[in-house]
Amino acid sequence: MSWFSLFMVWFAVVVGAVFASEIPIPFDEKTKVLLGRIGPPSKKVIQEFEQAGMKGIRYHEVTDAERAKIGAALASLPDLHQRILFEHLDRLSFLDGMPGEGTALTAPSGNVGSYSITLRASIIDESLSDFLTAKERRLFSAVKDGPEVTVTAEGQNALPFILLHESTHIVDNSFGIRRGLSHPLIVQIWKGSHDLKEPYSSSLVASTGFRGQSKIPVDHAQSIYDVMEKSPFVSLYSTAAASEDIAELVAWYQEGQYFNAGVVIEISTAQGKTIKRYKPLEFPRVVERYEAVKKLLSMPSSAMAKSD
After folding, report:
1. What DSSP character marks residue 306?
2. Cβ-proximal residues to 90 (8 Å cutoff; 6+ apart), any chain
């Protein structure tokens, strides 16, 4: 095992310890700076949530224990993401009163090239399994004595995953990944920011609520995941937009490669008997995209696109 692999194993254990028992760990200066940017969201951000129907939201003042968990999550980000956040993150905010479907918002701030990330506060203490399962089940309508969809990511917490996903949006914007739709990550899949190329646009993977469609009877779930298994999408949420595809792929890749998250989507009977299990990180077409992810994560900050 290389020294880097040993370091990542050690770091995963340390991060896990922080989330499990609130053991404080020392953070480097970059993480301390990012922690110093925690604060109330702007009025514009609050207005965006309110316009989406979330009227009861309010700023959440993080506790010392929560700050330690946030610090651990920030420190677990890839070096590229830490550098981009250091240079471009204006504010990191947490809100109470947000429903489960309103988990996060990454938006441009008042300064050109800068962004804010606003998260549902309860995500700090939520497991990744609970977060992903709730998100997935919103796609399906219940059927009497029908099957159930569950997503498991044993031992993982939602906050590092969500921060990685949201900060990838800033990486995307900073490097202009979607600009011209020619980047290797998306060129074969997307013809527009929200428009899929064939065969994906007419595929079952594009028939869910993440593409603006109605809920699907849960007894049709297996048909959808069978198609997804042969697609380049690591999750159904990846189909929502090119930006979400990039963010999901990078976040899931990092979870799998460096935190050994064995993410499994399981369809089971009402009695709990497994019907079929899927491992998205092992889907052949998904694995083919990993080389482009690795190249992205190794890019220097000097390769950033100029702001329009």
Report:
1. P
2. 37, 109, 110, 111, 114, 115, 116
Q: Is residue 222 part of a domain?
A: yes
Q: What is the pTM assigned to this prediction?
A: 0.88
Residue 31 lies in a domain: yes
Structure tokens at 41: 């969201």
Number of domains in the chain: 1
10-residue stretch averages of pLDDT, the chain, 308 residues long: 46 48 68 97 92 90 97 95 96 90 86 93 95 96 95 90 96 90 93 96 97 97 98 98 97 87 92 96 97 93 59
Q: How far apart are CA 263 and CA 153, in angstroms?
A: 5
Q: Where are the alpha helices (DSSP H) in the chain?
A: 3-21, 29-35, 43-51, 64-75, 79-88, 128-137, 158-175, 221-228, 242-258, 284-287, 290-297
Note whether residue 308 is domain-resident.
Answer: no
